[in-house]
Fold these 2 entries.
Entry 1:
Amino acid sequence: MSDFFEFFTRFLPDMLKGAGITLLLTAEGLSAGFVLGLLAAYTRVYGSKFWRGLAVGYIELFRGTPLLVQLFIIYYGLPGLGLTLSRELSAFLALGFNSGAYQAEYLRGSILAIGEGQMMAGRAIGMSRFRVIWHIILPQALRLAIPAWSNEPVSLLKSTAVVFLIAVPDLMAKAKSIAAQTYDPIGSYLAVAIVYLAMVYLLDVVLRWLERAARIPGFEMEGRKA
Amino acid sequence: MSNFFSYIVQGTAITVAVTLIALPFGLILGLLMALVHTYGGKILNRLAAAYSLLLRGVPPIVLLFILYFILSGRVINLSPFWAGSLSLGIVSSAYQMEILRGALLAVGGGQMTAARAIGMSRLQSIRYVVLPQALRIAIPPWSNEVSIVLKDSSLVYALGVPEILRRAQQLSATTQEPFLAYGTAALIYFVLVFATNRALDYLSERTKLPTHS
Amino acid sequence: MPNPILETRNLTKIYGQNIIFKDIDLKVNEGETIVIIGPSGTGKSTLLRCINLLTSNDGGQIFLDGKEITAKGYDEDKPRQRIVNEDKVRQQIGMVFQNFLLFNHLTALDNVLIGLTKVKKMSKEQAKTKAMEELNRVGLVDRADHYPGQLSGGQQQRVAIARALAMDPRVMLFDEPTSALDPELIGEVLGVMAKLARDRMTMLVVTHEMGFAREVADRIVFMEKGSIVEEGSPDDLFYHPKHERTREFLWKITELYGKKEKGKADGK
């Protein structure tokens, strides 16, 4: 037990470097995913048939295939079509597109939950469709989505772990290098698991704060979507 | 070309096999933990809660590696296929535990009360009254978990198991057509996920309890 | 008078700082219908749940057919067995709940059957015959294959009564059986209960239905703030209440239900 503690503290600085990359990837993927997801959700609710079809196609494709496969297609597959991207960019795109598809569903759910009534009320005072969406529907929808949406940052943080397979130097990659150095794979991956747990816990704390800060009194939505 | 095709299709069989081992294993383990959490005493409740938090707070691939090294070590020696499948099952059990817990809660304490009121023991009440209802309620979120396990089976690639993705990689090397190889892999996964979702939606419909017409 | 079929002595229930009820002495004789009335929240429901051991009590004893069912501890001769097997006791005390609590995944028939096959270990054929008998008793034979989701509230409650009756209990407990029903459905359930009373089933009923209390009860018990204020025959209680609080409560309740007592001599 104390051996492990020693082991852990010895490699902590190294692991934290990897953790930093993991957090960076998470933040990037989450933001890109948010933009894509919002766009896709908006299109699915308010877009014309053609754009709706595209949005659905995007969502179904990225939710219906594994992230790892998506990563490999971007990093290994695209060069076959003449488009070679760096490993960092590939990871970013894979995580971003993947997360976007899931965020789209959360956001679509809450946009729909806000409902017809608000749109009618907004137009009744002379606002254009776009204005209603921008000033009335989205502010409410985004707040409402937070409880269910909070699943996504944690999920994304955990998903980033696969990018080590294309040699991105994240926390998991560190684990691999530590294992190679110490010939103690179980210890290395356990140590890394603890760091992931810590990150997830911190993220959870932040998200719960966010939930409280964004609450509209008297107006809550059930439930976490799977 | 047909070699290419059959090679990847064999990978599909492996992927499906991994999923079909992981899921029931996860279900039984998850069900056990859910019952322990809901009906066990304070200590068991806390232990079960810890089980859930630990297994869900760590990326599946990290757990896969830890469990793989444990399960293919000197004490137990399993092949990567089995080590990977069972590890996925253990990871899934924590998520299935949460699904089942939610379902047990949704059934409600009243059903247990009514069962005990006609003289059923706790065990009988769970077995004949609470569980049949909980399992029905659990089907929609559970279908989601099935898709997730199917997709996560791709992680055993990292253990060297010759499933779809690993084969796609080999094909991409031999044919020098990486986009085609990986694209095919994606397509197969997509079809698998789509088909299982459909099948489970059907199941959900068929097991619905009749209400007022 | 032979021994009461059900008796509580000094029964007490405390929840945190609150005394739900204290020192309740109740005697129920075979074939009697006792109705308990009183303001909401006076622990009447909790009392019923203590009697069929669904809830633990904090003092006092309960006797069924002369045997103490609240006895704790283990059998001297059979060390691993408790003196009182609570599950077995509950087979002898039937309970009908305010919100029916039918098993949603089973048809009406199966709801009544399941106790017979799984608890009483009857054969399927015997159980089916008995179950149909009980459904007939409550007038729902033609709904035997319906699920609770397909039945009205009144029908569900009647199936719940059949389910409890099927176990051939010594005593039937009713916990506000019509409080969750739409007004037009109350009658069918009270009708079944009245029939049971006429057939000399021993019943302990908590209800706000004063008409039922007056017509069907052998004895009425008025409970308030955790103790029994007064008990007596319907005539005694309604027309000659001894306590002021009894009078006040009955006045309020008959006002509420719009029924004026004929010849109420002592009303305020």
Note: The two ends of chain C are 37 Å apart (CA to CA).
Entry 2:
Amino acid sequence: MCLAVPGRIVALSGNRARVDLAGNTVEADVSLLESPQVGDWVVVHAGFALEKLDEEAARETLALVRELASRGRDGRSVTR
Amino acid sequence: MSLDSYRDPRLVDRLLDQVRGILAGRPDPLVLMEVCGTHTVAISRSGLRDLLRGTVELRSGPGCPVCVTSQADIDRMVALARLPGVTVLTYGDMLRVPGSYGSLEEARAVGADVRVVYSALQALQMVDGTDRTYVFLGVGFETTAPGVGLALEEARRRNLKGFSVLSVHKTLPPALRALLEAGTARGRSSVQGFILPGHVSAVIGRQAYDFLAREFGLPGAVTGFEPVDILLAVRELAALLCRPDGAPQVLNLYPRVVRERGNPRAQELLARVFEPATAEWRGLGVLDASGLALREEWADFDAWRRLGRTAEDWLAERGPAAGAVSGCRCGDVLRGELVPPECPLFGRACYPGRPVGPCMVSSEGSCAAYYRYEKRGAWS
Amino acid sequence: MSASAHARNRPSRVLLAHGSGGRATAELIRELFLPRFANEHLSPLADAAVLPRVLGDHHPAASQSGSDPPPGQTLGGRLVLTTDAFVVSPLFFPGGDIGKLAVFGTVNDLAVSGATPLYLTAAFILEEGLDLADLERVAASMASAAEEVGVAVVAGDTKVVEKGACDGLFVTTTGVGQLHPRATLGPSAVRPGDRLVLSGRVGDHGVAVLSCRPGLAFETTVRSDCASVAPLARALLDRLGPAVRWMRDPTRGGVATVAYELGGEASLPVLLDEEAVPVSPDVAAACDLLGLDPLYLANEGKVLAVVAQDSAEEAVRVLNEAGASDAAVVGEILPPGPGLLGRPGAYLRTAYGGTRPLEPLEGDQLPRIC
């Protein structure tokens, strides 16, 4: 039900966008996004774009994960 | 921005190790509940539930919108499908859920026009200019409801009078509240923290769950659906719970998609089209302000307002409803009080090929997930 | 009627009359099917094809190696027979069509049974109103596929049903082949320790057909892998002989369902390694998008073979040389025993080190795909 995957907007026409995921293209309604642009990464669910993907935030999460992964087994501290 | 990093087995391995380290020495496993069908499946399919067994118990709650649809609502859907001149448009998962008078699939087999669609926007394209009434079954949480809102606004713009929606949409926070207020303790342990759904949260925002910490003293973590996302949540919740001091909090571990206040345009759309209403949840009963009903201004697109009287007549002709099949424990499973293999029907009288209740029918149901992905005989 | 007048009156769609057995049927066969499938066995248009003598397994030639027999001498070996029906919708999909599927599907069944495909029959059920241009395309595609493999379509039939009684076009085929002299395939040949070898990437056909499903608003660069696996199967048998225990082409239900069936037929535990199964990135992305599992998607140009442990690496090399560049060892047969992984059936080792049972595909999750 919550199935949604990240893709990149490759074409935009009014409220309709074509979103690409590694060679697969879906159409999505982008009315719920704040000024969508071609090139934006978005999460698509059931024919509409739910949200834009914040690439900066994505990097931060991965950095957090990697940092945790580099700790020993007793790296107990809470990170935030 | 591929998903690969979030699936990296080495990261998964290290995070698992961390979790075990943090929780080492505790006599009982930590009990965490997730409330999203997509999380249920992701956890089972990746094997995480099994890998964490003994350290963390990952329990499923009322997170599958198909599963929490009440028997009465299913019966209404079947009744609508059986009316002449009506086409029912539905997500595939709803097709085989058994009601008191059979399922939508069975209705189709005796001539009802029931068609599977992938979205409300797609459903809109099927409306023709004839007298036929098209009823889209609006099942879902806050992730899905905005799409239905978009379809309704489009229907109004294009004056598609044949289109209508039966809204049985539900909102998640009231269900969490009801679950906790009932205060059910299951045997020796009850839920100690929540893994919160990434895409519902994209709409409602992280702060929608602060009440978990404030009112119930429980921590939560909003997270995505890949194994690394889920383990990160488990790890952070474990670390929070092991702190000797400190107040519980609700973390946002999915900041790439979830904002503090969610998606304001989606929320405005929901407010334009829907309003909170009483809703009946399988397993939780009738909960105030837990459903999304079409607002008065949208009455002409409300399937029940248009056809409800006739549908009620159809139901009345059939005599009293049988109620849920005896022996079905879906309600207990949805409250997290029963793990699917503990149901006496699991794997015997009830399996995906011949399901008794919606938890085994839905592709995101707990019972189906356990049946397909969890090792037989590993639980006791 | 003059030739030009006749041409003007030629229908562009299938009519019920085409199935009556009378003039219209004869014209359809003569003008549409025969030019494409012409061979000495089909052209007489008799009710059955009388084929060259195929020798039984007592003939000395049957015990020789797999090399071609001396000129003038027919092949030795046992007869292998198969039948199949094709109801794929839509008729034309990226990378193929129902005709190509019918030929390769049947040829592949013969090939994985250890046979060299020799002859096919094709029976068509046509829906009234089907565009004859589409039927021509399908026939041309079948002929081309048959030629590629070196099989002849030696008998056929045509029926027409009223509009709505079938979905455009259905094809039923029967295939005849001759067993490879070194083939000793069967579930009883499978032993603990044997390895599973897959000839290439999975999920392509399933995704290609699904992308045509109306309403999905989903376009893809993925194309069906529809192809003959006869050269691959033959190469394995030529080089490895009895070290090849069992083969199957993972069509509907995918590799997972085949692994499950193997476990049941051989009464042994079969372990599939999720990380080792090759999947191309666009198929993987499509599966993410649609919530599908590539292990359960249909393939129309792949072989899953069980080979002796010592021959597994060589099997991959043989397949590479035969053109299957993504061939890989993807699992093994476990020893039977009292534990959870000792029971007959199929299991998956997940990317994260867990193992879980593999169930066969339940229900009809996809549209008709083969």
Note: Chain B touches chain A through 62 residues (CB under 8 Å).
